[in-house]
Amino acid sequence: MNTRTQTTEFTPVDQDLYAAAFQLLDPDPTPAPAPPAVLAVPAQVPLTTAAPVHLTGPVEKTLTDALTFLDTHGWTRYSLINTEGARCSIGALRAAAGSRNAAYRDAGNLLLHEARRQHGKTWQAIPAWNDSHSGAQVRSVWAAAIRRAHHMNI
Predict the structure, then answer these.
(1) Which positions ≥6 away from 58 have C-beta within 8 Å?
(2) What is the tens place of the pLDDT at every residue in 5-36?
């Protein structure tokens, strides 16, 4: 069955009433974006975006502070601290961490993992690895562990 409308006239929409109805449906509409501000910047100065900020995690800080300690006070083998004040890797970690906290433990685990990666999986503890390698080899492991902590953001 077809129904035909006899009239073709429509009632015009009251625009104010229409706006009021949508205001009731969405009382706090998202404002239109503001036009971009015009900056008075000399043409020769390029606009750059800032690099993302990296926050140093506690493990990275502990490793970095310990390596700085070794660079400043010296590195030694076969003792925690020698008579001149140089320290082995564990001694430097203890000096940097201040206590045997989570950062100390995690930094030590990361350092040992990196030592095993570079020098073989036979090392059971940091002191044995420290005492069996040269200063350059030990420093290389420290630097790699710091890079890993940085990339892991820990």
Answers:
(1) 102, 103, 106, 154
(2) 555 565 666 777 657 666 666 666 555 666 66
User: Among residues 101, 132, 97, which one has the least CA distance to residue 115?
Assistant: 132
Closest by alpha carbon to 122, among 108, 132, 134, 137?
132
| Separation of alpha carbons 59 and 104, rounded Å | 7
Q: What is the pLDDT of residues 101-123, one digit of tens each?
A: 999 999 999 999 999 999 999 98
Residues across the chain? 154
Residues whose CB falls within 8 Å of the CB of residue 66, separated by 6 or more in sequence, listed in order: 89, 92, 93, 95, 96, 97, 107, 142
